[in-house]
Amino acid sequence: MGEVKAILFDVFGSVVDWRGSIIRDLSAWGSAQGLQADWATLADDWRGKYRDSMNRVRSGKLPWMNLENLNAITLDEILPRSLANLGPDQKHHINMVWRRLDPWPDAVPGLTRLKSRYRIATLSNGNVALLAAMAEHARLPWDMIFSAEQFRHYKPDPETYLGAAKLMDLAPGEIMMAAAHVSDLEAAKACGLRTAFFPRPLEFGVAREQSGGDFDILAKDIEDLAAQMGC
Amino acid sequence: MGEVKAILFDVFGSVVDWRGSIIRDLSAWGSAQGLQADWATLADDWRGKYRDSMNRVRSGKLPWMNLENLNAITLDEILPRSLANLGPDQKHHINMVWRRLDPWPDAVPGLTRLKSRYRIATLSNGNVALLAAMAEHARLPWDMIFSAEQFRHYKPDPETYLGAAKLMDLAPGEIMMAAAHVSDLEAAKACGLRTAFFPRPLEFGVAREQSGGDFDILAKDIEDLAAQMGC
Fold it and tell me: According to the 3-state scheme, what is the secondary structure of A124-174?
């Protein structure tokens, strides 16, 4: 691992707890607005359409659009099951919840340790404005923000991993992709990146077993990753 | 100015002292290498070709290439006047000097103050890897790095100012461009951005008078800009 100079992180689920955060944020907001809804169902329905919505862009069925634009379309599809008669400002507030996600408890301390020795950055399907606002909200100490939006390709397209490598002026082998998702890491590995897996058993609410794969590092969480990377 | 949410900074000359840094850095390295050269002449010759070299790309005479690739070409053109018989590693070391530029004394304290209230980012013709390495070297606390490289257009092309606005999901009027160069600010203003000018009388070594222009803020330096922006 001596040649690794930068670590790219998947964000949704890996660094931040999208499900718990959406439920907490929208429950509090909904109460203040007098809105009753099953926010857990909304979160799960929304996330359930996440990959399909990006695949519509990846396959060319939809023109390029960034994640917040995609999420707004998906939200309109899934909202009727949870809530009716929302105004545009309310829908916008809900759509912007992804900017307000909270980190897993180990994320900020782990990233801060890694930052002392490596350049750390996002490599996320979230758009730049979303990731920048989230960094401010969650105090994530990124050196750089790389987003599918800059490459006009969603992960796991190789253009994302190799695009970030090119912008960093690093060889793929000098970069490590870190994520709680095997498919992301397998795609990064196929592009020549180093890989680090850590599980997030509670990402989808109900505890699940997650087994790693044939990756360079298997860690318990981001603090453990920092320890294994000598920080 | 109440609507400004983000401040974009020109970097070379505005935030960092390219001329003083190049002379200091290469003088020290040259001594260690046993190389005698007039480093001030090298810095001035190199910078003298800066705008022309980007204009070759802007006009389509050269295909898109990032600033470090352009700088390497320019360096080969101007080196013979200062130094002969350098090896490729030595040329590379010289070309990477832009990653090691030092900030003007007010830059880090001013940016740190502005960061408490605004999102702060580069909008530079430097490439991403250069700007990221410089941020680490000079401890520049950017929230984001925007570079001509991401837009495949050099300033003052409007694609740079408007591209950054789009990635930030902000209207041009919610963004302020801050620079020590009138031409950069005039181009930003034409795109609808707010503008802040501060002089760098010693940018080119010999003290010069710099008058501002019809910009929203005229500041003495970045600390004064922070004060005027309420930080």
Answer: ECCCHHHHHHHHHHHCCCCCEEEEHHHHCCCCCCHHHHHHHHHHHCCCHHH
Enter the ipTM: 0.89
Residue given tokens 């002089």 in the structure block: B199
Per-residue pLDDT, averaged over A64-82, amounts to 94
- Write b or e for each residue in A150-185: b if 16 or more Cβ atoms lie within 10 A of its Cβ, otherwise e: bbebbbbbbebbbbbbbbbbbebebbbbbbbbbebb
What distance separates the 2 farthest-apart alpha carbons in chain B?
56
Please report residues of A whose CB lies closer than 8 A to that of B143: 132, 135-136
The residue behind tokens 């001596």 is A2
Q: Which of A129, A135, A170 sits opposite B168 (nearest CB)?
A: A129
To the nearest whole angstrom, how far is the Cα of B206 from the nearest Cα of chain A? 35
Question: pTM to 2 decimals?
Answer: 0.93
> Which DSSP symbol is given to B221?
S
Q: What are phi and psi for residue A37, nearest 5 degrees?
A: -160, 160
Q: Which two tokens stand for residue A22?
A: 């959406």
pLDDT tens sequence across B107-153: 999 999 999 999 999 999 999 999 999 999 999 999 999 999 999 99
Task: Return all residues near B182 (Cβ < 8 A) that are at least 6 apart.
Answer: B197, B212, B213
Q: What is the mean pLDDT of each run of 10 residues along chain B (231 residues)?
A: 94 98 97 92 94 93 96 94 89 98 98 97 98 97 96 97 98 98 97 97 87 91 98 96
Nearest Cβ partner for A167 among B149, B167, B169: B149
Given the structure tokens 């590092």, which residue do they identify? A217
- Cα–Cα distances in angstroms (integers) from residue B168 to residues A43, A96, B1, B18, B50, in the given order: 25, 14, 18, 28, 28
As a whole-number percent, the residues of chain B with pLDDT over 70 amount to: 100
Judged by CB atoms closer than 8 Å, whether chains meet at A150 and B145 is answered as: no
State how far the Cα of B187 lies from the Cα of B185, in Å rounded to an integer: 5
How far is the C-alpha of B111 from the C-alpha of B14, rounded, in Å? Answer: 12
The pair of structure tokens assigned to B114 is 């502005």
